[in-house]
Design a protein that fits this description.
The chain is of the alpha+beta class. It contains 6 helices and 6 strands. The strands form 2 sheets. A 4-stranded mixed β-sheet has the order 3-4-5-6. Strand 1 (52-61) and strand 2 (66-75) form a beta hairpin. It is rod-shaped.
Length: 216
């Protein structure tokens, strides 16, 4: 026959186990509720939006073979390379509009990346001017177009050239430190945009608008 103290000990242990299980379940439920609340807060919070800025798009016109400045307001990132990419994607996307004077097919993110590299022409005269030289030196923009954009672009010397000049002039209008532009397609060197416009050369942005008959 089981001694009385063992029965009491068994009951105490059993009750303690039940109580502990209930506490753990409750703590788990509370943790789960906090997690759900955190997810809901994160999902409903508005993302940070950059303030609108006025920018100048150098828009191509196939009828006159020129570029025309068009001022619009855009939210742009502060980082120069991301800024240049946003500008160019906005420029090229508007060519897919129904009333575009330079119609292009719709593609997602026609510009995959823009890399801004310094053009070192002269060394600073003394060590103290290194920072000033770095801030003032001209830049070359490496514009990496997407493969779908190049593949779907209308073939023809005039339409391809206008697209290239529009890109170069828009960069110069908004990032005047960009004085030269080179192009890649899908991260690689490509001879032409779609059979005609030369993508192996370096384009001078200041001359791009003038070459098409527009005023920079």
């Amino acid at each position: 026959m089981t001694p009385r103290f063992q029965k009491i000990l068994f009951v105490v242990l059993f009750v303690s186990s039940v109580a502990m299980t209930a506490v753990l379940v409750r703590l788990r439920e509370r943790a789960h509720d906090r997690l759900l609340q955190g997810d809901q807060t994160q999902g409903t919070s508005a993302p940070a939006v950059a303030p609108l800025e006025e920018v100048t798009m150098m828009v191509a016109d196939d009828m006159t073979s020129t570029l025309a400045p068009e001022t619009i307001a855009l939210p742009l990132p502060d980082e120069p390379q991301a800024r240049a990419r946003s500008l160019l994607n906005r420029l090229l996307s508007q060519y897919s509009n129904a009333h575009s004077m330079h119609p292009l097919p719709t593609t997602t993110n026609p510009v995959e990346a823009v890399f801004l590299m310094p053009l070192s022409k002269t060394a600073p005269s003394h060590a103290g001017s290194v920072r000033d030289a770095a801030q003032s030196e001209d830049r070359i923009a490496i514009v990496n177009l997407s493969n779908p954009f190049a593949a779907l672009h209308p073939s023809g010397l005039e339409t391809e050239t206008l697209t290239v000049l529009s890109i170069c002039a828009t960069l110069h209008a908004n990032l005047p430190q960009v004085t030269e532009v080179r192009f890649l397609v899908g991260g690689e060197q490509q001879a032409t945009l779609h059979g005609h416009a030369d993508l192996t050369q370096t384009y001078l942005t200041a001359a791009s608008a003038a070459a098409s008959g527009a005023q920079p």
